[in-house]
Amino acid sequence: MSTLMYLARRVLQAVLVILIVTVVVFCLLHALPGGPARGILGAQATAQQIAQFNHEQGLDKPLPAQYLYYLRTLASGDLGTSYTLNEPVSTLIVQRLPKTLVLTVLSAIVGLLLAIPLGMWQAVRRNKPFDYAITTLSFVAYATPVYFLGLLLVLLFSQVLPWFPAQAPQGDTLGQVLSDPAGLVLPVIAGAASMVAVFSRYMRAATLENLSEDYVRTARAGGTRRRAILWRHVFRNSLTPVTAMLGYYVPVLFGGALVVEQLFNYPGMGLLFWSAAQSSDYPVLLGCVLVISVATVVGTLLADILQRVIDPRVAGGRS
Amino acid sequence: MSAKGGPEVGAPILDVTDLGVTFGTDTGDVAAVRGVSLAVRPGETLALVGESGSGKSTVALAAMGLLPGNARASGSATIAGTEVVGASDGTLAGLRGRTVSMVFQEPATALDPLTRIGSQVAEVIRNHRRVSAADARREAVELLRRVGIPDPERRASAYPFQLSGGQRQRVVIAMAIANEPALLIADEPTTALDVTVQAEILDLLRRLAAESGTGVLLVTHNMGVVADFADRVAVMLRGEIVETGDVEKVLLRPGHEYTRRLLGAVPRLVVDEPDPAHPNGSAAVGTEPVVDLRGVSVVFGRGRRAVRALDDVSIAVHPGETVGLVGESGSGKSTAARVALGLVAPSAGTVSLFGTDLRRARSRARRALRAGIGVVLQDPVASLDARMSVAQCVAEPLLIHRRGLSARERRDRVADALERVRLPRALADRAPRELSGGQRQRVSLARALVLEPRLLVADEPTSALDVSVQKTVLDVITDLQGELGFACLFVSHDLAVVQQFAQRVVVLRNGRIEEQGSTGSTLRRPETDYTRRLLAAVPVPDPVLQRQRRADRLAASAGPSA
Prior knowledge:
A: 319 residues, MetI-like fold, 14 helices, 79% helix, globular, B: alpha/beta, Rossmann fold, six-stranded mixed sheet, 20 helices, ABC_Ni/Peptide_Import (chain B), transport (chain B), ATP hydrolysis activity (chain B), nucleotide-binding (chain B), AAA+_ATPase (chain B)
C-alpha cells in the first residue's frame, strides 16, 4: 500500500472517530439533569424563563436537529458562545490552546528524554539496586496525584528553596508566556513526572524483551560489543511499542494539564475547562472536549506514522 | 564442489575438555552438560547429535561463550588456543565473528528486523577489521553473492522480513563467514527449513567449509543431515557423550545401545522399487468417503493482496484409511486440513463431511458433525489449556457434545481414553505443563478420540517431538486406528513418516495438487518432477547411500541447466 493511500485512509478514519466523539459528547450533555438552562439561569429560574432560554438557544428542537445544527456551525468554525465569558468559544480556545500545547509538548519531551534512557538503563541493570530504586521511584511517582506532586514541588522549590516562582508565567500571548522560562519549570516537571514513571516502565519492558531476542545473540556471535548492540539494535526495536503507546497517552497528558494549569494558574485550555465545568458553561466544555479528542486522534495518527518510519514492516505489510 | 577430503591431521581448532555446564534454577542446580570432551580439526565436520534436553546446544553455546546468565561452565573449551570458559567479554568479542562463528536454528528471528541485511553483514566485518563503511558495504554485497542471494546489490538494502526463510539463513551464514573463521558452529541450521531448502543450505555450508578449510561443529537431531554432512559423530545422552566415531561407523555400526535405539526410531525413506506387499490404498474405495473436498479453492485477503491458498483441490478420505498431505511450507496443506475441519470456508467448491454438505448444514447440525472429528495439532504445549488438568482437557469435548452423560460416565470415558493412549491413570490430575512433550501429545490424542470420532485430523502431530517419542505416538495412533477404524487426514512435511504411516498421499504445491496416489507408488516412483525433487532432497541416515543420493541430486540439478 502506498504511503499516500495509507495516509488518506487513516485521516478518514480519524475524521469518523471525531464525529463519533461529537455525538457521544452531545448526548452526554443532554442527559444532564435540568439541561443547560438550569445551569445558566440558576436554581431560582421560573419555568417560563427556562422555556424562553431553551427556545432562544434552540434547545427545544428535536435532538437530531440540534445535533445537525451544531455540526453545521462547527463546520464554519463556530463553536458557539460562552454563556459566562460572553466570547466566542473559538476565540477562547485559539487564545489558550497554544499555551497548553507548549506545556504538554514540553512535558512530553522532558518526560521521554528522561524515561527512555532510564528504562533502558534499568533493563541492562535488571534486578540490581539501580533498577529497584528507579522502579520504586516510578511507582511512587505514578501513584502520586498530580495536584499533590505539584503542591510538593511548590513547597520545596518555591517556598523552602526559592528557586522557581510558584505561579506560571501569565499573559495573553505565547510570547509573554515563553519570556519567563523559570516559571515554566515547575509546571513542566509536574506534568512530566507521571510520563517518566509510565514510559520508563514501557521502555524497560520493551528493552528486556528485545535483549532476550535471537538477533541479539546473533549480533553477539558476530563479535558486536554489548554497548553497540544496545544502541544499534535493541534501542530502535524497543522504541516501536513505546511509540504506539505515545499516541494513546495524549489524552492523559491533556488530563494532567487540567490539574497542572489549575494548580499553577497557567492560562491554558485546562484552566478554561476547569472554570467552564464549575459554571456549567457547556459550549466551552463541548469545545474543549472536541479539541482534546482531535488532539488525541491526531496524536495517534502521528504515532502511527512515526511507527511506519521506525519499522519498515509496518509499511511492508505481512512478514 | 567436490566431496570433502578426510579429516586432516593437525592441532584442533576447537578443543573441549571435561566441559560441564550447570543451570541455576528456582528449584536448584541442574547439570545440563557433564564431562564432555571433543575436538574439531581444521577442515573437519563433527556432528553433535542427541535428543532434546541432551545438552548438545548447550555445548555449542558454551564453546561460543554465549551461555545464558544463569549458567555456569566448568572445565575447558579452547578455540585456536584461546580459553573460552571464564573469558572476559572483550576476549570473547574478539573471537566471535572472527575466529569462530555461529549459524542458528531459527532464521526467522536471528536477524535484527529493523536493520537492512547488508548493514548487518557489514557490522560483523567492521567489528574485526578496520575498513571504511563503504568498503564494508561492498564486501557485504560480495558475501551475499557468495551465499547465493540473487541480485545482492539490491537485496543488501532489504529488511529481513522481505526475505524467505532460506534466504534469511543464507544471510546468517554470510555474517558467519564474513571474516573467514577457522571454526563454524551450526546449531540445527536447517531444522526450520523445508527439505529442498535444507539441501541447498547444506550444500552451501559444505562448499564454504571446503573452500576455506573451516572446521565445523554441527549440532543436529536429524540423522539424515549427519549422514549428509559429517565426518565424525558424537552422540549425547543426558548431558554426556556416549559414543564418538567416524560417521560410517556410528550410523551403520553403532556401538552404544542408545545410539542403536535412536537410529532404530528414525523413520527411513524407502527409495527402492515399489513394494507389492505394501497396502495400496484401494481397500476402502467404494465406500462413501468420510470427508470429501471437491474443487475447493481458498482465497485469503482481497484485491491485489489476495493470496490463493488452495486452488481447485479435491481430496477424499475413506473410512479406516490414512491420507498423508505433504508439501513444502506455504503449499496449503494446513489450510486443506482446516477446510476439512470446517474452520476455513472455501471460496469455491464443496466440502462434505460424513456425507453432508457443510455449507448446507445448519449451525446445530454442523456442530453435531464436528463431534465426529478429532484434532491433534503440532504444538502440544500451546494446544492444551494450561489451567486445566489432564482429565479436564480430555473431558471438555464430552461436556460440549455429550451433555447427557453423568459425571461418573464422563469419568469412565476419560479414564478409558487415557488408557487407550497408554497414559498412566496417575497423570489425570496433573497439569499439562508437568508432562513431557510426548505425553502431552498423547493427551491431545486422548482428547481427540474421547468422542470416538470417525475422522482424525492430525496437523504435524509429531514435528515438535524427538524421534523416539514420535515413534511411540505414531504407534499409538496406528493401533487405535486398527481398533476404532477412524479415517485419518495426516498433514506432515516429513516424507519418511508419511511413507510409513499413510496408505495414500496427496502432494501439494503452491495450493494445487501436484499428484496423489498410494504411498507405495507415489513416494517411490513419483510421476512429477516436483515430487522427485522433494524426495531427492530428503537426506537418509546412511552415509554411503546419502553420498550417492547427493551426487545424483547435484547431477540432476546441474544437468538440465548446463
